[in-house]
Design goal:
Helices cover 67% and strands 0% of the residues. It is mostly helical. It is globular and about 60 Å long.
Length: 193
C-alpha cells in the first residue's frame, strides 16, 4: 500500500510539473521582439495535432507520433526553453536523462512508457520520430507565419530554418500551403467569402 501511495503521489507531482509548461514561454521568439510568445504547452499541443495529421498523411501511426509530440518538450520544465543560439554556450543534459529524473518517482508503468516515448523521439530513427520532428518544425513555421501576419517582420529566419529542416513530403507540402495563405483563410469558407 505504501508503494501505491508513493507511486500515486509521484505521478501526481509529475502532472503538476507538466503544468509549468502552461506558464513557461517559448523564449526564442524574444529575439523577434515578441514579448509575449506562446507557452511551451501551447506549442506542444499544436505539435501534437500537426504530428497526428502528418502521420496520417505519411501512413505511419498517428497515436505514436502524437504521443512523441506531446512529450517532446517536457524537459523544459527543468532546463527551460533554451534558444538555439544559447545552446552553443551551455552543456545541457540529454533530454532522456532529464525525463528519467522527471519520472523517477512515478508509477512504474508511467515511467517506462514516458521514457520509451522520449527515447524514440530523441533517437529519430523511426518513421514516427521523423514525422514528430517535422511536426515540431512545422509548428514553428506556422507560428512564425501567424506572428508575421500580426506585423512582426523579424520572423523570416524562423520560417527559413524550419522549412529547410523538414524531411517528409507531407510536411513540406503543408509548409508551402501555410506560406501561401493567411492564418485566417480557414474562416472564408464559413463566412461565404
Amino acid at each position: 500500500m505504501a508503494d501505491e501511495t508513493a507511486n500515486a503521489q509521484g505521478t501526481a507531482a509529475f502532472i503538476f510539473e507538466m503544468g509549468v509548461m502552461k506558464q513557461a514561454k517559448r523564449t526564442g521568439w524574444w529575439f523577434t521582439g515578441n514579448n509575449n510568445p506562446e507557452s511551451i504547452a501551447d506549442h506542444s499541443f499544436r505539435v501534437g495535432i500537426i504530428g497526428a495529421v502528418l502521420a496520417m498523411m505519411e501512413g505511419v501511426d498517428p497515436a505514436k507520433v502524437a504521443l512523441m509530440c506531446l512529450f517532446h518538450d517536457t524537459q523544459e520544465t527543468r532546463i527551460g526553453d533554451i534558444p538555439h543560439i544559447g545552446r552553443r554556450y551551455i552543456d545541457v543534459v540529454d533530454n532522456v536523462d532529464v525525463t528519467a529524473d522527471q519520472v523517477a518517482r512515478v508509477h512504474p508503468a508511467v515511467r517506462s512508457g514516458v521514457l520509451r516515448v522520449v527515447e524514440a523521439y530523441e533517437a529519430n530513427d523511426t518513421p514516427e520520430a521523423i514525422v514528430a520532428k517535422d511536426a515540431d518544425k512545422l509548428e514553428c513555421l506556422v507560428q512564425a507565419v501567424e506572428y508575421r501576419a500580426q506585423g512582426n517582420t523579424l520572423v523570416q529566419d524562423w520560417i527559413d530554418t524550419s522549412l529547410a529542416s523538414l524531411k517528409t513530403a507531407s510536411a513540406q507540402a503543408l509548409a508551402e500551403a501555410a506560406l501561401n495563405m493567411t492564418p485566417l483563410d480557414w474562416r472564408k469558407k464559413f463566412l461565404g467569402q
